[in-house]
Amino acid sequence: MDNSNQTSIEKIKDTIYRSCLFLDDEQWSNWLDLCLDTFQYKITSYSPEIRKDMTYFSGDYKELCSMTEMLPKHNTDHSPLKRHASVYTVDLALDGTSAETVTSVVIYQTMLDGVNSHIDSGETRLFCAGRYIDTLVVEGESAKFLSRELRLENRRLDKGSHWPL
Question: What pTM was computed for the model?
Fold first, then answer.
């Protein structure tokens, strides 16, 4: 692999990991800055009971901008989420300008006082697990998301989960 391809792969990984940090810190505009204005995002899971894919969310860049602007006004569970991600694959296009990636992700939630009576305050629990399936475009010194699918293993999300995962 030549140096330019290795550099592109590092840019791509950096963008994926930065996206996790921005999402962890609820820095929605910084996260959206990592996305192209044609960005498509969805959260899905397969249900063995009905033998079909389920879509929890599907939206484009404009819808995500609107949604994240409204988040402070929503009645949501404010217990913080933290992601642990590991990039499994980066399949760089032959011309080195785009890539398909697969990243394993688990998201933990630390419970705040009084949020859920059946869970102790300060307890950290597994919120969800899955994979980010991303398409990124390399532009100059950075890589930007063209699309992201969070493919969950979970088939249930708690109420008040309005934010991008």
Answer: 0.89
